[in-house]
Amino acid sequence: MTLVLFSLGVYTAATGSGLACQAQWPLCSDQLIPALTINPDFIEWFHRAWAMVTGFLIIGVAGWTWLGSGFERRTKLAATLAVAILPLQITVGAITVTLSGLVPGGYTVSTHAAHLVVALTIFTLLGLATIWGGGRGTARLLRAAGGIAVAGVVASAAFSRAVPFLTYAPPAQAAFYITGLAGHLGLVATVAYATEAVRVGYDGLDAGTAGTVRALAVGSMGALVGTLLLGRDLVLYTAVWQQVNLVALGVAIALAAGAAWTLRGADEMRDGAAPIGGD
Description:
single chain; mainly alpha; Four Helix Bundle (Hemerythrin (Met), subunit A); 72% helix
């Protein structure tokens, strides 16, 4: 739900629908529910409705971690922090659509950036709560996370504004964030599972290899976040910024692929060292 909400928010802004509903919130053009046809008012209203349902679900997840049994303290903390900063995200969102021009930092680059960073923080915390709440990791889960990270980052490059492959229209922008965030979540899982492998160890994976994988994933994550920020209109997107974006994409792909390759190499070494015929 949060991943889709992220993409809906990008699509809403890209179509200019974020300034629809006559700058009203929570009403939309003096209505509780606008006409159910594809128009700017409906796009903005649907984004708000999806956000409201998702917000209640985020609160429910946090409550579940506290009321349920067997959840670790870190799981509860991640889910609770997501709820704690949710009002900030709602406030920034309201500012961008209702106070534009009335207060400094309304519908501006700084507010856009804040809206993106806070949303990404919530998404990351929910990802960690899901990963940690799922029980002990394994080497197989770590390898799967690495594969998802590579696939997501590479797919996001195809939709990126830095790559002249598709017109960076609203649907492409939404697809860029869906794939980029999928890659981000894969990297978050890679870091989480690799950290656990360093701490408790996984069968067939030594701490040194896990530490290398974690470092590569962290580096890829930082570069990918840079591309997510450059995917919005936070800078005057000149040829220089396009080159910066391309470099960030290349670094993100290379480091994610390096992490996955390191895990594959560890598998091959383990398989090659297996005893044959009882010798």
